[in-house]
Amino acid sequence: MTELHGALIGCGFFAVNQMHGWLDIDGASIVAICDRDPERLRIVGDQFGVAKRYSDAAAMFANESLDFVDIATTVGSHRPLVEMAAAQRVPVICQKPFAPTLADAKAMVKACADAGVPLMVHENFRWQSPIQAVRAVLDRGEIGTPFFGRISFRSAYDVFSGQPYLATGKRFIIEDLGIHILDIARFLLGDVSSLTARTKRVNPAIVGEDVATMLMDHEGGATSVVDCSYATKLATEPFPETLIELDGSDGTIRLAQGYQLTVTGKSGTAVSDVSPPLLSWASRPWHNIQESVLAIQMHWVDCLATAKEPATSGADNLKTFALVEAAYAGAASRQPVRIDDLL
Ligand code: NAD
Ligand code: 89Y
Questions:
Q1: 228 CA distance to ligand 1 centroid (A)?
Q2: Minimum CA distance residue for ligand 2 atom 8
Q3: Low-confidence residues of the chain, pLDDT below 70?
Q4: What fold characterizes domain 4-117?
Q5: Which of 13, 148, 241, 302 is most enclosed, with most CB atoms within 10 A?
Q6: ipTM of this model?
Q7: Nearest ligand, CA of residue 173?
Q8: How many CB atoms lie within 10 A of CB 269?
Q9: Which of 310, 166, 156 lies closest to 234, judged by CA?
Q10: What is the distance of C-alpha 231 from the center of its chain?
Q11: Which CATH architecture fits 126-280+319-338?
């Protein structure tokens, strides 16, 4: 396979995982990096041996011939950078949250579609191997038709030390973390027709909400609860595990803390350990997320090679992003929100 030449924009906290992921993938490499912060540019450039370094994305697009660009900046810069990539006809990956608002997200999807440019949102949680293991059980038909789901992420892990900006935004847990858990709900139970939400801020030191509970009707008939908290102190800290309960017409699936999967279905009960592998560059407890970074980037390379639409394409991600918007609107109004009205 011809090697794809990519560039990374944004060399911050999370981008280091993406750079490790690219090193592990045959068929793609990062040939240039960009960051406004010279210190971050130096650290990541030196760590990963990338000589071509830019402080300005426009200059990088002008000077480099790129097969794709990987945007790992925070949300405020996503729209201009995605639109710049579209204008340059460069296929683009963009970190979550894709955009500040659904209107911005729609404009970004349109810009790429109009330019004929592939676009994938780096929505990686569904690529975690424990989540893929749950999806595989559903696909085998072991529990029949699911009618109920609870997808839960409750923790008191200090995410603010690595990502200080999370403490200062008006929106916090739904936009930052809930977006992943809502996407997992869609991945397992299908698209959503309506959502009801309640939020709270428990930690007085932050601006946004750190607790959110959402009740959803799925188009296929299932009901789910997605609950997220960064204010939940537990005996054993589960970060960053997503716990799952699914009830179906023929059985149940439970993904419990410690990556223990219990399936009761047509063939009886089976308990298995679905712990993610610890990649050579990964560290606990982040290894679950780090492994999914490699998986989604491999998927991107495969999609570019075979002209396939990525699972979390921009168009797909609008349906997850609409759930985020619905959750904030529904928490404010205390009314259910119809998702079709937003899309
Ligand atoms: P960060 O602030 O540590 O890094 C962002 C970097 O982008 C900074 O170095 C900044 O200087 C640079 N930057 C910003 N605007 C730029 C521009 N226009 N041109 C060039 N450089 C620019 O942020 P982070 O914690 O690494 O988060 C980055 C993104 O990754 C966020 O959207 C966050 O939500 C996401 N994230 C995703 C996951 C996941 O599992 N998918 C996990 C953590 C963070
Ligand atoms: O930014 C968040 C994400 O995407 O995964 C976990 C996180 O780093 C903190 O909530």
A1: 22
A2: 159
A3: 1
A4: Rossmann fold (3.40.50)
A5: 241
A6: 0.99
A7: 2
A8: 10
A9: 156
A10: 21
A11: 2-Layer Sandwich (3.30)
